[in-house]
Amino acid sequence: MEGSTEGTEPDSHSFSLQPLTPQHTGGDTSTIASPTQTHYDGASVDGTTMRSRSMSRPKLDDDAQPTKSVDDGADDPPEEEERPILDLAQDEHIDAGVFPFKPYKLASLVDPKNMDLLKEMGGMAGLMKGLGTHRKRGLGKKALATTAPASHHGLSDTRADKDGRPGAGAGAGVGASQRHDRDPENAAGDVPKLVLTGPGGEDGGGVPLGESASEIGVDVEDGPTYDANLDERRRVYGVNVLPIRKTKSLLQLMWLALKDKVLVLLSIAAIVSLALGFFQDFGTPRPAGEPPVDWVEGVAIIVAIAIVVMVGSLNDWQKERQFQTLNEKKEERGVKVIRDGVEMVVDIKEVVVGDVALVEPGEIIPCDGIFITGHNVKCDESGATGESDAIKKMSYEDCLKEGTEGGEHGKHTDCFMISGSKVLEGYGSYVVIAVGTRSFNGRIMMALRGDTENTPLQLKLNNLAELIAKLGSAAGLILFVALMIRFFVQLGSHNPQRTPSQWGIAFVQILIIAVTLIVVAVPEGLPLAVTLALAFATKRMTKENLLVRVLGSCETMANASVICTDKTGTLTQNVMTVVAGSVGIHCKFVHRLEENKARTNADEEPGVKGALSQKHAQDFSIDQEHINSTLSPAIQDLLNKAIAVNSTAFEDDDPESGKKVFVGSKTETALLQFAKENGWADYKQTRDSADIVQMIPFSSERKAMGVVVRLSKRHYRVYLKGASEILTKKCSSHIVVERGSKETEVVDTREIDELARDNIQRTIIFYANQTLRTIAICYRDFESWPPPGVQAESEDEVPYEEFCHDLTLIGITGIEDPLRPGVREAVADCHKAGVTVKMCTGDNVLTARSIALQCGIYTAGGIIMEGPIFRQLEKQDLQDVVPRLQVLARSSPEDKQLLVETLRELGEIVGVTGDGTNDGPALKKADVGFSMGIAGTEVAKEASDIILMDDNFASIVKAIMWGRCVNDAVRKFLQFQISTNVTAVIITFVSAVASVQEESVLSAVQLLWINIIMDTFAALALATDPATPALLDRKPDKKTSPLFTVDMYKQIIGQSTYQTIITLIFHFLGLRILGLSSSDKNDTIVQTLVFNLFVFAQIFNSINSRRLDNHLNIFAGITKNYYFMGITLIEVAVQVLIVFVGGAAFQVTRIGGREWGIGLALGFVSIPLGALIRLIPNAPVERFFIKIRLLPNPDVLPTTRPDTEWNTAIQLVRDNLSTFSHVRGGRMRASSYVGKSRSVHLAPESRVALPSIMTMVPTLIASSIGARWAPQSPSGLSHPASFDPSKSSAALWEGKIQIHPDTKPDDPVMQRWGAVARTN
Question: pTM score > 0.70 for this model?
């Protein structure tokens, strides 16, 4: 249990802080990110975040520029950014001057926490001497004399002078963990100097008891390190800033957009089309009355390109501005340090290695360091490492005495201060060992900088653009050759008769028609469709609390096959909460009972499912919401006072959200929140009205805390709370809560007999097995204080042991970090959509398993593994285990990165969610990174592509849905566009070859309307279909899956064939079909009809293209898409307008009702034709497409060799059998089994011991179970979960790998890992 001491009571230490005046914030060049200003009696316990956007690395400002040197902190070699893992080889190029320790060696003390290295350095004495600083007085006069930073000078705060406590400094406790360059003009005089202590400092970390000054080198100034000034320290160890990178300007974004392959192809087409258009219009004689409009097509293509570039780049630019707005809350931050024995507040960027810094509750630690001394300091490192339990900080010497080594042995105690972590309670000091880019937080930030990769859809569209360019060029070349052959034949036969200039113009005409064919083949609307679909989706997603920072990540999310999620703060709320408990011994309450029925043990005896009789028949379950209707007012009052009075936590405004939150230890805040949720009397009124006689602070020895209150002159009461397994043994009675006890006005108590004792123990173990932190709440009444017979110096100094017995148990509460609302459903939706969810957490394996079971991540066939064992696996084992890995506990940032890399190597599209600094590298490495907008650290936001503004994991399902909507929109458009282009290319080719004048069936301006305007309209129409939950009913596509599906190919081929046939029939036989004579007017009527039916075929085909599958209802959801309906009506209206008033420009004429009817009817045929095509079975068509290589053959993709086993241990056994073939002669050599073993290559030796013979164990177990053998349940309470080992943790954790208990014995995962796994 966590607790607080009396020193943290707000009433006894009530003071306020004077915030520093923010300097130079709010603009684009705002550089200093500082989260919440926190202090002790007005603080937020919630995490605070750094907020800055880094895109490039300019030079540091002059005031922050260290002395030029090869080891300059701001000018480090580029590889530093590439290697977040500490590489000590980087120290080789650094001149450490007088210092014995180089920067990366110091930084490696905390990553990972390394007590052995600290011992090698000579412990704290050696470290302090090596850094030239003092535990008590910090940097000495010599270090400060040469160069005093400008920010040290300023007015002193007289109010602070009068208050000597560490929390009274201006700006102290303002949370942020890194600095960025600031305007040098505003740097000077920002932060006032505060003289808070007397000679030597009041609290600055005195010499620990039992040590002399000479032993720790406090007062010894012998050595060159003590003379090193601040500039020298910055030269060697760097400055406490991160180089910022400028965001890309709008012009830069536009230039990047123009580099798209499809747009490059379009640009070439536009230039050629424009040049030829000008030549046709102004370089050749035109027939009378024909307007010069051939140049319009080239201009139209340029307009299309401009629209695409502007929409795409403006969207990116706008999202970047939104991201900056999100991170606008920036203010200056001061850090409290001791220099020459004087406490002072300095600007965070002035902190140097060797400074002794002070910590207080609510502060975000700005630099890495080693704890010197302090009082009850506890840090929340969940934001940095994922560890959800508070880490107690002790001095190096105390850690040695305790025998802890960096918290690795589960005691949650160490002496390492990690940048980015948060101080929960206590006061203390630490020596700074790493700043800026060398600190834990800084290295992760630098590692996140890199260029974004192309999304899977972009890659496929680029390939499509190349293919279209090749096919279009080939078609144009074939047409050019065909027409040139005819041209030379005509030239040789002088038929028709032409002048030399006419022959020249005829040649140019051939060139124009060939180029026109290539231009027609290019899908101009495609990039616009992609951009519009993304822009539309991101706008809608913003309304759904999803801020898309990287536009392409939206469509990448469509086919995400794996989501690797953090636990703390992502799946869970990162707020400890009472989720279950018992009042008395019979009333078992559960938070949201319907969803968490497994949280109560009131219904059945463990191991006796379905038993007719129950041992504890009086037990009953209630939902926490009904607790007030079950408990009597007297019991409610008793429990509320036991919680409120016996607590030092308090309520304050959260600066981030403005909401009231409880501040204090996680356990106390959970209990106070529980009382508040139940609507009981206000904690402060209850606490203030209590007459407190004695306080018993929490200590780790007694694992309890208490308070004695005077109820009346002859009535005193002790309230106690603490570890349930200890306090319940000191209870002799319990309060009585039964069904119907609501009516009683007094609190009844009953002796704890053997049955009741068994019930209490069973409840405690039941909660412990669910990894709940169990807290017992008790009381005892006395007639006098001190109690009779007790010798005490005063009434507030009665020994704890004298009254901590014969207690009355009020209840037991189970506390945990609960799931976020909607997480269970979101995980189920992910599974339904074919997306695997994997949990990566720095937390312990039992907590991770409990949360994974609750939210449905841990399922049959799944593996739980710990980071230390995971990172040691050989590559082959890694690739074997990763597909089945569902929970990775105790994982480091490198483990998460390794998991993401392995998944991507296996061809998965990976999404990663996280809110902490430790999630940064994996977020950056993933295809799509999600960060939390409220609780997320700056590192997480910097690395992410999409920010979940409401911190809700469930929003990821919406991202998947909208991503699929974007992908579908692009495919719908492709299906429509390619049909149009194929038809246009074929009819242009055929009609040009058949025409003596090399004229196409459609004029250039008609092609313009069809090929540009209509395609652009169609892009807008098809890109705006809203996302629906039905999109989650299918599996994601693999990266290798083709862009065109079988259904799309069927529609493209079917529709383009139909459109080509009817167009060519009416082009060549139109006069005969309509019964018209040959004349210029009738030829124009036929050409108008052909134009009309072609356009209406496209309009109706756009409706048909709304579906990509074999379902027939193409009108589903059409009424919700107003864009589609409006655009379709506009297309029809404009087409009618063109026919009536288009005249010479479009080479059309007004036509009669018969021709309108034929055009509309033949166009409408596209819809029933689409339905017929959908009825054609896919399987035979797919086989045909594979045969003609239109689709890739899935059977020829790289697969595992059929003659190898998945289990490498069995391969080893088989290979070793070859020995016997040489020993036992020909008979053994003739064995087919041995023959096979020779063909199996020896697998590389894994660093994880996998004894070959153990691979037989799962088979033996399986055969035994088949013979009806079952494990016997041990008697007693050690295994209350009985036959369900997945719910038992009595033996805690003995193995390193765990396989889900429902996994079948013949599952390959059991054969491979069963030998080293525990299925508990």
Answer: no
| CA–CA dist 781, 1181 (Å, integer) | 85
Preceding amide of 103 cis, omega within 30 = no
The terminus-to-terminus CA distance of the chain in angstroms comes to: 25
pLDDT digits (tens, 9 = 90+) for 410-445: 467 899 999 888 888 888 999 999 998 888 888 877
Residue 12: both structure tokens together = 């006894």
Contact present, 1173 and 1203 (Cβ < 8 Å): no
Q: How many CB atoms lie within 10 A of CB 1268?
A: 6
**What is the C-alpha separation between 200 and 197, in angstroms, rounded?**
7
pLDDT of residue 552: 76
Q: Do the Cβ atoms of 1158 and 1091 come closer than 8 Å?
A: no
3-state secondary structure (DSSP) of residue 696: strand
Output the CA torsion 913→914→917→920 (10° steps): 0
Beta strand spans in 561-680 (E)? 562-566, 577-583, 587-590, 620-623, 650-653, 660-663
Report the run of H or E that residue 733 belongs to, with start and end: strand 731-735
| SS3 state of residue 951 | coil
User: What is the C-alpha separation between 1032 and 965, in angstroms, rounded?
Assistant: 10
Residue 18's nearest CA partner among 190, 133, 157 is 157
The Cα–Cα gap between 453 and 1039 comes to 14
Q: What CA–CA distance (Å, rounded) separates 637 from 675?
A: 10
CA 985 vs. chain centroid, Å, equals: 46
Going by the DSSP 8-state scheme, the letter that residue 596 receives in this structure is -
In 238-335, where does DSSP find H-type helix?
A: 250-258, 261-278, 295-326
Rg, the chain, Cα only: 38
Burial of 1291 (0-12, 13-18, 19+ CB in 10 A): exposed
Residue 900 · residue 882 · CB < 8 Å: no
Per-residue pLDDT at 1317:
65
Q: How far apart, in whole angstroms, are the C-alpha atoms of residue 506 and residue 285?
A: 12
Q: What is the pLDDT of residue 324?
A: 63
Rounded Cα distance, 697 and 12, in Å: 14
Q: Which residues pair with 422 in a beta bridge?
A: 364, 380
Taking the C-alpha atoms of residue 353 and residue 404, their distance in angstroms, rounded to an integer, is 25
Distance (Å, whole) CA 961 – CA 1031 = 6
Tokens found for residue 788: 């009779």
The pLDDT, as a whole number, for residue 937 is 74
Q: Which two tokens stand for residue 281?
A: 């219009």
Residue 1236 tokens, joined: 């096979």
Q: Report which of 1058, 1055, 1087, 1061 is spatially closest to residue 1074, judged by C-alpha positions.
A: 1087
| Bridging pattern class, strands 562-566 and 910-914 | parallel
Active site residue 566: yes
DSSP letter at 813 equals E
What whole-number distance in Å separates Cα of residue 281 and Cα of residue 292? 5
How far is it, in rounded angstroms, from Cα 719 to Cα 399?
32
Write out residues in the chain with pLDDT < 50, as ranges: 1-85, 147-219, 328-331, 404-410, 605-613, 1197-1257, 1259-1295, 1319-1320
Count of H helices and E strands in the chain?
49, 29
Long-range CB contacts for residues 287-296, cutoff 8 Å, separation at least 24: 289/1144, 290/1144, 291/1144, 291/1145, 293/1004, 293/1005, 293/1145, 294/1004, 296/1004, 296/1005, 296/1008
> Closest Cα partner for 480 from 37, 1126, 488?
488
| pLDDT for position 491 | 86
Phi, psi of 832 (to 5 degrees): -65, -35
**Catalytic residue (choose from 72, 76, 157, 566):** 566
Type of residue found at 902? T
Tokens of 1002: 């459609």
The secondary structure element, H or E, covering residue 776 is strand 773-782
Q: What is the DSSP letter of 1306?
A: T
Which H or E run includes 711? strand 704-712
| Neighbouring-strand partners of residue 1299 | 863
Distance CA 1236, CA 1291 (A): 43
DSSP state of 1013: I
